[in-house]
Structures are given as C-alpha cells and as structure tokens.
Input
Amino acid sequence: QAQWVESGGGSVQAGGSLRLSCAASGLNFRRYVMGWFRQAPVKEREFVAAITWNGGSTDYTDSANGRFTISRDNAKNTVYLQINRLKPEDTAVYYCAASNKYSSNWLMYDYWGQGTQVTVSS
Output
C-alpha cells in the first residue's frame, strides 16, 4: 500500500520561498509521473506541475510564471516543488500525486499525499 509523507509547508510572507517535499513508500516510485496540485478554500483543485518518471519533461500551470520548479530524486523516492516569490494567492493545501499518465488532469492521478498547508501573508 502506497504511503506518502509531505513536508515543507508553512506560513511565509509574500516574496518568500518554500520547498515542498513528498516522499513515497510502498510503490515503484520511478515508474510514475508525479504531479503537484493545490486547493484553496471554496476553490477547485488546481494543477500546479508535473514531471515524467525520469525527470526528462516537466509541465506547469500557465500561471506559474517561472516561480515553480518541480523535480524528483528517484533514489530517494521523493518529488519536490520549489516555490519562489510567493504571493497571497498561492495560499492553499498542496498535494503530491502519482499517475501512469503525463497529465494536468487530477482525475488521471491514482495516489495522493495527505497535503501540506501553505499560507502566504501580504
């Protein structure tokens, strides 16, 4: 059974940075596309970024504007999301997820982390 440990969230001021981590166990991590999604209160789940199994390709939400960087370390079964120049509108619960398909659609993802809260104050 897949298990996930997300970390790195917290409360920061606008303009700051955070690095989110998501460590997996109980599955063949390197076989999966990994994605990050976020969900703010009363809003729909939103795609943030995805990375192929070997890190060769990445995809980002159109609004990323170069502030997000997804990466992975298959030796550590971990995917990361670096967020720079944080804005109050980045406030949300951030989730990592695994999929057999390279997609920005959350419905394509089968395994989900528990989420980590990011709160950005102005």
